[in-house]
Queue: 4 jobs
Job 1
Amino acid sequence: MECTIPSISTPTPVLRDFFNSYNMATIYVKVENVVFAIPRYILNFPGSPFEMMFKLPQPGDGERKEGASEQNPIVIEGVAADDFEAFLHAFHSLPGNAPTPKFAVGGEDYWLAVLKLATMWRYGDLHKRAVEQMNKNAIVSRKTPLEMIYLGRKYSVPAWVKDGYVTLCSQEHLKLEDLAQPSSKDLALDWKTIATLLYIWGCERLPLTINKQWCDCKPMIDQNLIVATVVTKCRGCGPTKKKTQESNYRAIDASAIPNLISRHFRQELSGLNDNFDL
């Protein structure tokens, strides 16, 4: 009787769509005078300018292709090597024995570098993470209102722009020269923005009738509590009610300012939102 031994077939391995030889291949990138060897998928990010670049036909073959060797790297202009290193560090999980980047991980310079490149190259998830970490670490809240507006506009973060506007309009005094000619020219606001802020600050205030029981002492003004409610016990003056002294006195309604900012700057704020669809 003849015995037949069944053959054992080995299934053909299947590559995952993402974890394939194309995405995992090492490419070489030159930033300033530094060459980085990285997996292709870091730059082949959906929506980034690199994604389109990789879809274009590449001249040459083998190591003569751009990015295929240290001798023929992809050259990225206009970016600092230290910024790119921080970007890679934030994007790619590294082992504990990996050297740290020049910028202290989690510090202001580190997250600003990450945010700068995530904005430039439209890495939405990394942009969101950088913003969250900068908020969590109070990096932006320590800035002046003009610095908050500048950073928010530059890096497409509408919440920072709005917070800067709200802070300016909540001040007791708002001077034209402080907005148009600050210490740094980069922080100067355009005239349309200045006019809108001064309008909100000066015209969208609550008129208070003389002898109404509102407290206008300095501690209350400093805390933006001047028109919250009729005061029964002032934090600055104790139980004694104070009254306005001038018939034309106008005060800031601190609770209304965020809504006024949202209304008057709707187009700008929504435009910053549209940049990342966050």
Job 2
Amino acid sequence: MDVERLDAMPREEARELLIACCGAAAWVAAVLAARPFGSRDRLMAAADRAWTALTAEQLAEAIARHPRLGESRAPAALGARERAWSAGEQSGARAAERSTRAELAR
């Protein structure tokens, strides 16, 4: 995926892609509203601005959408793309040293 494709993508398709990145609806709406980006730097700046503007409740929404590292199953509400990303994260966590896994479990 590149920025040019994200910029040209229909709104609903872009929304689905973005919600796979961050489960906070307010973040997704803010990033969508910033399109077109034109460059990776502008995309990242928009994502950062949207993230720092989230309330505690919205941050909790984003976090709740993803399984904790070390959990064996992703929430059923996740789409195929999110489940694949989560599986990659979980795989990385399983390969970590025991002390790192203990810290993640806290």
Job 3
Amino acid sequence: MKDLKQNSQKSGRKPNIVHPERELKNEDDGGEQPLVLIAWFVLVCLEELGWRV
């Protein structure tokens, strides 16, 4: 039984690794979070460079 569970978990994780673009197209899984993180990262970088937003 344990072997079957491990195999199902591995097969479930492989598509995410092989096809990362599927995660990017998936808006149902909180697709807005990466945009928020990128925006925050850009703001932090601008502040470090001396820009005031």
Job 4
Amino acid sequence: PHGLAPSGKLAVEGAAGSIVQWKEPTRRPPTARPQSSAVPRSGSLRTPYLYLPSPFRASESSKAPRPRITLSPLGCSHPLDKRDPPQLRIDTSEATRASTSASSNGAALPGGRFMILMYIFETYLDIRQHRALKLPTLPKPLMGVISNEKFERSRAYSLDKSYFHFIHEAVTIVMDTTILYYKVLPWFWKKSAALVTSIGLNAENETIHTLAFLAGAMVWSQIVDLPFSLYSTFVIEARHGFNKQTIWLFIRDMIKGILLSMVLGPPIVAAIIYIVQIGGPYLALYLWGFMFALALLMMTIYPTVIAPLFNKFTPLPEGVLREKIEQLAASLKFPLKKLFVVDGSTRSSHSNAYMYGFFKNKRIVLYDTLIQQCSNEDEIVSVIAHELGHWKLNHTVYSFVAVQLLMFLQFGGYTLVRNSKDLFESFGFEDQPIIIGLIIFQHTIIPLQHLLSFCLNLVSRAFEFQADAFAKNLGYAPQLRAALVKLQEENLSAMNTDPWYSAYHYSHPPLVERLQALEDSDSKKED
């Protein structure tokens, strides 16, 4: 259950929370999605982000990057998936890949070295995780809880994704390194100016020039990402029984995403360029204010205008399940206004649930796959209880404040270096385009982003334990245990995890730790 992020283009993504951590395939079903840690996962040129907030954490896309504007709706539940946090961000990753360069000195060279070092470090963690996935037996706490048949299927699925990940990351680092050291970015910027001139437009207009640059990046990323997306969706996901979409639905979603990007992207990019041009000493504040207002607008129209373009949302029918969810919401004074079921099964068998909405106008969305997979209504309600725990414990508020602060600080940092001629020259640029400045700035702060990512994952895992405990205190401990196990089984999530890998990557504790925490809280009460 992840938001559409069409390859290589400006795109708007919805975001939502989830009860379990699930590492998505390269192309995600075009639905509201959970997101990952607050900063790029690796130090490559695919990860220059300008973080713009949203009050909850949401999941990042697969490791097949793409330039887009990403929106995480205000008021969604706190994420239970690993990846980037609540944020509206300008992701210029593919634009960077499609064109990054560096000279033999300056900021670019150390950045490239750090990118390679991070690839080596993360590959080491991936190898550790791969070894854990190959273990032939379940962890002791899961013996008798997870069937051997489900374990073997989960193991096969996880290993397939792991092999695919190694190949994808190797191709990516080779491309990123080549782009960085062969000065592709300034070349691509100049070529986009030539394109603008050839069609009779004014290349001196930075907005037009930038849009041409991003359009080229979109085409490039489509070419690069499509083979990986197709293989992930129609080979790996299909092999293990998850993919439900046809090639025509896949193409239709991609076309819708492109059209959506063409409508939403240009005015947003033009506004950002204009603000930077006239911002003066208050630029950071103006950029933050614009992006915050844009986030509110997009979070308003996403559930009612954008999401229905890709999925069908129907009211949850009257019955026992609806009655129990409404009773739970009322008991917690959660202002539930609408309760929907989304047809996630048209694209994938993966399951999820999330909530969103402003203030007194909250909505809950259940995937039809979640309803099908849980054994009874109480298990589904326990999942909702966990999500409401994030709301009741103010996790969304804490996330919102943290991301707002990070966003403002990033804008502040950008204003300090945006006129640095030496910085631009170190990447091979004679002039100082605004969009290039954003890309370069994000590339130079990658080390800090990795540290923030690790710290935010620590906080996120703590929030998950608290939300589990909240549901338990409402009397849903047995049902939540059963639901967590069921979702782990049905999504074929990894049963064995390497502690170093999970500590670095996971925003959600592994299943073993969550079940153990629920049991420990039981033991403490008995004592």
